[in-house]
Amino acid sequence: MPSAESASVACRPDTSRSDRHAAGLAGATHRNTNDNTNSSAPKMVSNGSDTTAAARPLTSDMISFTATVVQAPNSGNTRPPTSSGDVWTPKPSDIPPPGRHRRRFSLHRKTNQDEQENCSHNKKVTILHQSRPFSEIKIESTVERMSSDLSKNGYMYSRGSFESDPSLMDRSDRRSSATSRASRVRAWSRALSVSHEADGDATSIAAMITTTPGTVWTTFLKTVGSFADETALSGRETVSDVSYSWAQHAVRVRCVARALLQLGFCAGEGVVISAQLSPLLQAVNLAVASLGGVVAHVRSSWSARELRDDIFPTARATVVVVDSLTDNFREALEALDDQPEALRRPIRAVIVLGGLDAAAADLHASFTVIGAEDLVAISSLATEEAAMTPSIDSLASSVMPGQCCLLVFEYDALGRVRAAELSHDNVLFTAAALVRSFGLINRDRLIGYLPLHHVASQVLELYMPVIAGLSVVCAPTYNRPLVRVVTEHKPTVFFAAPATWTRFSEQVYRAKGDVNAAIYRWAKIRATNNSQKLLFARGKGAKHRSLGYMLAKALVLNNIKKKVGLESCTACYSLLAPLDFELERLFKTVDTPIYQLFGTAETCGFAAINFPHAWEFGSSGRALPGTTIRCDERSQETVLRGRNVFMGYRYSPNCDNYCPGPELDGDDESDQYTSTYNSDGWLRLRQRAFLTPTGFLKISDPRDFLVLSTGDWVPIQPFEFAMMELMPELDRAVLIGDGHTFLSALFFLKTSAMTSRAAAGNNKHAGGRLLDEDALKVGHAVGSSATTVGEAIRCQQWAVHFDSVLEELPQVCCISGYRVRKWILMAADFSVESGELDPDTGDVCRRAVDRKYQALLDSLYS
């Protein structure tokens, strides 16, 4: 076990807290294995994108993802499975669909009398799937008799919807099924299936998920026709609150589209946006998509060089939209305007949504700068509305579903700027799958406030309302704290990043502090039990709540939720980054369970989702409906395939390492380069992960990126390489900060192989290791007399040296917007034996490091 001198935290101005930081260190090793299977073959969970599966008839009562069902060995059915892939067990044609306007969560099964007679106590079941890109995929598991009637069917199926109908059971079976429901919700097989009853236009949404690609504009027009008088957007413009119906919103979108045409905007060109959500921004986004343009929402912290050399050329930007003209954008635009005309990007206009300020007025460039009011007024300057409207419709009709409409800029693992290309079908399919899974309708209210440079935020706040017709409250326009906006507008569904849930937890602690401690303990037990009871509820299980829970909800829980502003929420979700387990437990005790969502820019922001009646604590969720996830249990490499997978990467022509790809139709410019995922459509996810026996994805270790609690993906290699370049005295530098708000680093000084026994005896632990010659030279240069690691840990000169190096790091590291703010000098190096290094690759197991040094890291981030 590490000693009290094993580490030292240097957080300006105090560097003498090594004893307190090391007090909580404990050695532990971690193995990412699955106890439920002995097979090292890849595991697969499918939501029906496998092309080898036979088509299944779509009914209005089922969720639109499909199942992959094969017959288990010795099940009594002599029908052989096909060799080409998975086989569906179709729903009998004589079974009528269940009643509408209900939501049914049922375990799908098909009864076979011969199977019931020949079933044994335990059954081995096997799922075979198409093996690419791995070898043959085979899952084996044992289903006990306590799994109720499921063990009689001879079927085991992966994530999906294997439909059965309550009419298949007689009344006595249904009565006994309802009686034993509480025990069967824990059964292994009940976690494998969930279906939803149709509600309103659910059939059309289901069709959109399965078979019907479309464009953003055509989908928007359908929603306007269905909910013309319903509220679409609300917010504050100038000094008054405003609200727009879908019909009014459509008029504004056409006005903005005409204004863009007046500015010379053409199909295939890009619009770079760095602005918060507002009603006008919604109109700009839809107008660009309707004209066949490409939208690129970027974070405001990109450097001027990156904007000028990478983002503007890659996006083929001709229009820039900002809330206010910050220094980096002004510098990039002025530098772009000073370039030779042959190299200059054709920026035609800069639109300032927040009003023309002094910075915009002082912009020394040749292109047009207009404000928000001018954007709407400019559409009527040169051409009448009647003449321009057909042009907008004709341009919109020429846009194809597979055409790129969205660029997501980020860094790759090497620190190069790249853009993920997403098509109309990508974003609409993902939005429709979320709407169907979450059960959203047009009467739902959504608070929009998330940073739009995250593609998940765009899908939720820009495209999901277009699918379901729900109302969006533009929170940033009110200039109030988010908690106050939530309390006033009472959303029915709420999405937040872990950093936001941390702020909301402060409100929860204050609210529950006003409740008697004994009463609160009783209420939180009731809330937790109710959440567990509905883990995989079926039928009308959501309405079968205990009297104790109803009393706790009326007397205690509703009052707490009201103070937080979430009393109207039917479900709360966490996205962009992993949610801390303690936060997840806290909100569950106040009857506000938070469901984790996971995805990357390449998967349109969503690859796996948890939602009510289909969730597992600590997991990232099951595969998005209509997609397939495969996982190799030995290497923990995870791949995904589905209609949410992006078109490819687009690099800047200024990038040294780019892969030329297909050019856009009708475009001969040479600045478009695309690097795609592998040829058979499988996308390799960025993090190591594994699948649980119930089909839930769990992230085991970061691979190339750290995910901050704000949702930003930070590449590891550029930072660690830059720190090693600046500090030759280091043997290893490890970047940390996964799940936190900022980055930190672990430093390991070079030590001599010949450590004196006397020095080791004086320090008793690893801190007695002698410093290497390189470390001694740097130590003498900074005025330190330390000769061992333990002495360096206690030396103030070393602390000042590390602080000064981190101040210089942004000039050396190519990553902008993120800084390494704190560091720890470690006494003992990582090793395979102690569990910090992977035995196969030698890479740092960052999750194992987080667990082993949890107390040390908690004190660093406290």
TrEMBL record:
Domain AMP-dependent synthetase/ligase intervals: 224-649
Record keyword Ligase present: yes
Compositional bias ranges of the Polar residues kind: 30-52, 70-86
Keywords carried by this UniProt record: Fatty acid metabolism, Ligase, Lipid metabolism
Region ranges (Disordered): 1-54, 70-102, 161-180
One example GO MF annotation: long-chain fatty acid-CoA ligase activity
One GO cellular component term: membrane
A Pfam family this chain is assigned to: AMP-binding
Keyword Chloroplast: no
The protein's name: AMP-dependent synthetase/ligase domain-containing protein
